[in-house]
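step=predict obj=NirD/YgiW/YdeI family stress tolerance protein n=122
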Amino acid sequence: MKTRLLVALLLAVPFFAHAEFTGPRASSSSAGSRAVVTTVAAANKAAEDTPVLLEGKITRQLASERYEFKDATGSIQLEIDDDYLPAEKFDQTTPLRIKGKVDRRWNQRQRYIDVKSVQIIR
């Protein structure tokens, strides 16, 4: 009985270890501290690793895994691993929902979106 209780307590410890303070003066590195960006114009000005949720269209493929994306506020480059592309075919007229984060190449000022999910909007 004591052994089972000890094992249960040891298994529960990792669940409590991931807690994080989110109150006043919380660290800016906390995941909940950055608002989700929803426009291309805002993504072009956002800090690296800022989460994005964009709706618009991929207008053209620039290179392998690189695409141009446009919404009503502007355009930005996307980097999409083939694993994250939808199973259905789509073209430049298909509305899409893009989830990812803002990133930047080490030698460029231009931002792009590192995409983790692409959904076709119906």
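step=describe
Residues 2-17 form the longest helix (16 residues).
step=end
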